UniProtKB/TrEMBL annotation:
It comes from Amycolatopsis magusensis. It holds the Pfam family TetR_N. It comes from the Bacteria. This is AcrR family transcriptional regulator. Keywords: DNA-binding, Transcription, Transcription regulation. InterPro entries: Homeodomain-like_sf, HTH-type_TetR-like_transc_reg, HTH_TetR. Residues 8-68 form the HTH tetR-type domain. Transmembrane segments: none annotated.
Amino acid sequence: MPTGVALRAVRAQLFEAADRVLLRDGPSGLTSRAVTTEAGCAKGVLHRHFDDFDAFLAEFVLDRVHRMDAQAEALREAVGTGSVTGNLTDALIALFGSVAVSIVALVTFRDELRARLRDTWPAGIPVLTDAVGMIETYLAAERERNRLAPEAAVEGLAPMLIGSAHLLFADRTGPAPDRDAVHAMVATVLNGLSPAESG
């Protein structure tokens, strides 16, 4: 048991260091030395707990994807409350204001990491595919409550919202879009599909 606790603590320390390096320096700056230096530990610590750096990165990505469960739960709890546009705006800001955009860049940047992730993630890019599912589930629930038009094709709307939000947040060197910009994008995608609302 103590060994398991120690391993979890080391993993958490290294993953949090990877978050900081990735947000600050981007995918090209995320090296094993950068992570261990940021974590304040010897380089050998990472290699003692993971087969190689791509194994570390694969577990890091999957850990960050699983952290989206709390965001998905918050969106499920928002069903039937507030406005659909407002709820989606808040969910997209929470998603893309986190390390998510940098994770997408990391996965597309490293061929070896994509290959490693194929073992557990057979299609799409982690974070984006989960986010599409989260938004689609939310839209379907709102459609069932007649807060979205019956003809709303949630299977197409969800990837459109995620793709559009990703474009808004993609430039990590510039300022993040403000809530009004994200809200306007969501309102445009849902134009005519939800009752007149303010969010």
